[in-house]
Every structure is written in structure tokens, then in C-alpha cells.
């Protein structure tokens, strides 16, 4: 899900950058067969405002989802099973979050260099960077990135928020360290056991089989 939000932020940024370049350097900007002179375009504030608004809304939705997920999964008493993410997953999250922060920083800098009129977009990316840093510190240092299971669902929260509900399941299969959850509506979700510390995986699998009705859900490639 995080990837979808970032993809849309990237698309909007890429579409706006040529316009910022034209406005900032007084170049001619071509779109849909029209020629727009950057220094004469009267609606540059509107274009930058719409772009900034869309980027902010998408980023706010992404941030809200992550912080809400952290709040839920850290209500430990509500879960039958609750553990910190594995060390391997933690290192991967740190790496990807660092790349994401650098990416936001570079895009924000480019907007600022291209046109001072796009400074609001740069400030929004600065907000994203601060939010990402705080979320990462909160999740890793304060040990808020966790995986939990109730009788109704699996919830995993780090840079991604994963919720896998047991209702509507028809099949659960395993391939190496990857679990596949197939639903009656043909939806298929996957979950990596590597997100869970090795010493906790047996308990996780035991609870999974006890929470899912094996008369209704077929378990494939599981050892008895």
C-alpha cells in the first residue's frame, strides 16, 4: 500500500517538474499542443497549489495509515500473539525508509532550484521527511513496529501496514517463508514469515491454525 501512495506522489511530481522548470527559467512549456511562456503564465500559483495539495493529501493519507497502524498493533492486550518485527525486517525497513527520505529530499530540492514559486511543494516534502524520520525512530528505537494476531486477523505494521482477515478465506498455502491467503472473491494476499523473529514463528503458525476453521479453509503444503 505504501508503494501505491509513493507512486502517485512521484507521478504528480514528475508531471509538475517541467512546468516548474519553465516558470523558473522563463522557458517555453509545451503541453497538449499549447505553448506556455513561464514568465507570462498567469495561473502558475494555481498549478503549483493544486499539485502541492494533491501531494499533501496523498502523503497525509499514507502517514495517517501508518500512525493508526502503530497505535492499533501496540495495544498488546488485544492480541493473542504480538511480537517485534525481526531483525532482518528491521534492517530492510531502515534501508528503504532511508532511500525514501533521500528521494523526498532530492525532489524537494529540485522544485526549489527550478522555481521559487514551487517552494510550497518543497516544504511539503520537508514535512514528509520529518514525518518519516519520526516514524522510523518511533518504530525502531521505541520498538513500535510489530506483528500481531487476533482471532480474526493478522496485523503487521512497520513502513507498511498489512491487515489479513480470516473471514472469507478459502485456502492458505505456504511456499518457503511466504504465506498466501486466498479468499472466496479471488483476492490473494501474501505475508512473509521473515517479518517475525525465528523463535516466534512456530507459535505464530500454531495460533494461525487454531484461529482458522480447517473445515472451511484448506491448508496447502503445511507440515502436519
UniProtKB/TrEMBL annotation:
Keywords: Membrane, Transmembrane, Transmembrane helix. The keyword Membrane applies. This is DUF5673 domain-containing protein. The chain crosses the membrane at residues 7-29, 41-61, 93-114, 120-141.
Amino acid at each position: 500500500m505504501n508503494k501505491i501512495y509513493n507512486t502517485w506522489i512521484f507521478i504528480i511530481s514528475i508531471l509538475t517538474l517541467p512546468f516548474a522548470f519553465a516558470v523558473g527559467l522563463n522557458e517555453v512549456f509545451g503541453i497538449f499542443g499549447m505553448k506556455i511562456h513561464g514568465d507570462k503564465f498567469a495561473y502558475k500559483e494555481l498549478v503549483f497549489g493544486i499539485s502541492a495539495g494533491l501531494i499533501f493529501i496523498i502523503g497525509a493519507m499514507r502517514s495517517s495509515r501508518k500512525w493508526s497502524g502503530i497505535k492499533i498493533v501496540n495495544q498488546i492486550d488485544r492480541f493473542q500473539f504480538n511480537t517485534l518485527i525481526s531483525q532482518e525486517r528491521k534492517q530492510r525497513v531502515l534501508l528503504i525508509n532511508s532511500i525514501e527520505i533521500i528521494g523526498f529530499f532530492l525532489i524537494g530540492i529540485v522544485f526549489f532550484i527550478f522555481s521559487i514559486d514551487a517552494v510550497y511543494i518543497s516544504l511539503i516534502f520537508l514535512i514528509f521527511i520529518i514525518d518519516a524520520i519520526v516514524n522510523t525512530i518511533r518504530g525502531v528505537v521505541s520498538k513500535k513496529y510489530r506483528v500481531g494476531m487476533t482471532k480474526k486477523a493478522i496485523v503487521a505494521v512497520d513502513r507498511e501496514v498489512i491487515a489479513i482477515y480470516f473471514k472469507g478465506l478459502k485456502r492458505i498455502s505456504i511456499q518457503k517463508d511466504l504465506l498466501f491467503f486466498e479468499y472466496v472473491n479471488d483476492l490473494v494476499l501474501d505475508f512473509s514469515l521473515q517479518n517475525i523473529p525465528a523463535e516466534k514463528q512456530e507459535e505464530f503458525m500454531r495460533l494461525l491454525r487454531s484461529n482458522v476453521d480447517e473445515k472451511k479453509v484448506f491448508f496447502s503444503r503445511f507440515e502436519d
